[in-house]
Design brief:
With 383 residues, this protein is of the alpha+beta class. The chain contains 11 helices and 13 strands.
């Protein structure tokens, strides 16, 4: 039986920062020279992002920052906390956001927590053990026998491998109900810098969590959702040093070169063509918005119509790039979209360090709507 996504739940921290405010905070950092400030202004203003969310409430109210503030001082200037301090904030903040997204997914899918058999958690922005998978079992009151795994440090593309794992688990036993949760607190790793690559990273990354319920049991939860038809992975011929995610003494360090969109633009047609094989192009696209220029390159590289990536652009505009969680936000919006018909094929694409292209082909399944006429016919047949 084909596994399906029954439902998707999302959660963001309550602190919302307008992109113009984030730009001004970053531009006010100590040591920023005139060239860096001009670059910050330009990069932030063309990002196609209007707002982002962060677990760092002090960004919204720097004057209220405590005397021992680690991330921003009372004047709104960025500080450089150690990796330990950043990771401690992840340990404190990530479980609550993870649980919030998971509760929404279970409620929306009509799944009782006691039905969950497996948990797959994803993050590349923090580390601890017992980890997010353990905390999720405890925080949601799941059965202690739930089987758990964690996919760590895969980057922005990780949600699709997590769904691939969930699909395989769902195929392994008829009653399997797999809870997948991606939680990324990217803003914990912002740093003052004149480096163009760090400026680009600071202009797009944000915090959020998203959860998906996956099962192959047609009787589990609400009907409908997204059938998970197949998955694919491809490494591009270049880009190993253009998108890199490492751990430094002052946080996790992102290398995000200007070549990334150009590499994706050159490689995307071949990668997608190999994945689809002889199949016709899908009707709907869910593409990870690594940034505005990435979406532009995918659109032109695949010769898509201007509105094909509207869902991806809307999530980028309203939430920024939440790393692995982002594509689940896009899929959640497509599940709510009445214009996506039953049977529509949905192609998911996400990009990670390497460069890696992760792909998924899905089919939208809408719930059957019982009309008054249907009820009348059923009653007549049973009379």
């Amino acid at each position: 039986m084909t596994a399906r996504i029954v439902s998707i739940g999302t959660a963001v921290p309550p602190t919302r920062i307008a992109q113009a405010v984030a730009r001004d905070i970053f531009a006010a950092q100590e040591g920023a020279d005139r060239l860096a400030r001009r670059r910050i202004q330009a990069v932030f203003d063309v990002s196609a992002i209007e707002q982002r969310h962060t677990v760092l409430a002090e960004f919204a109210s720097p004057a209220a920052a405590p005397d021992d503030a680690a991330f921003v001082d009372a004047g709104g200037r960025l500080l450089s906390p150690t990796t330990g301090a950043r990771n401690q904030r992840f340990i404190v903040s990530a479980p609550e956001l993870t649980a919030a997204a998971a509760r929404t997914a279970l409620a929306d899918g009509g799944i009782d927590p006691s039905a969950v058999t497996h948990v797959v958690t994803v993050s590349c922005t923090g580390l601890f053990a017992p980890g997010p998978d353990y905390r999720l079992v405890r925080d949601l009151g799941l059965r202690p026998t739930v089987e758990r795994c964690h996919l760590g440090f895969i980057g922005c593309a990780a949600a699709l491998p997590a769904l691939r794992v969930a699909s395989a688990l769902a195929a392994s036993r008829p009653d399997a109900v797999v809870l997948v949760v991606c939680t990324e607190l990217c803003t914990l790793h912002l740093r003052p810098s004149n480096d163009p690559q760090q400026i680009v990273a600071a202009s797009v990354f944000a915090d959020g969590a998203a959860a998906a319920v996956v099962t192959a049991d047609p009787a589990a939860g609400n009907p409908g959702g997204l059938d998970l038809d197949r998955f694919g992975t491809a490494l591009t011929a270049e880009g190993e040093t253009d998108m890199v995610w490492t751990i430094g003494d002052n946080g996790f360090e992102m290398i995000l070169s200007a070549e990334v969109p150009r590499i994706i633009g050159r490689e995307i047609q071949g990668a997608v063509g190999r994945f689809l094989g002889g199949d016709a192009p899908p009707e709907v696209w869910a593409v990870h918005p690594g940034g505005r220029s990435v979406l532009d390159r995918v659109e032109s590289g695949l010769d898509l119509p201007p509105d094909a990536l509207a869902a991806s652009r809307a999530v980028l505009r309203d939430f920024g790039n939440m790393s692995s969680a982002t594509i689940l936000f896009i899929l959640a919006s497509l599940l709510r979209d009445d214009d996506v018909p039953d049977g529509a094929r949905v192609a998911g694409l996400a990009f990670g360090p390497g460069l890696t292209v992760e792909s998924a082909l899905m089919t939208r399944r809408r719930r059957a709507v019982t009309t008054a006429e249907d009820v009348g016919l059923a009653l007549a047949a049973s009379a």
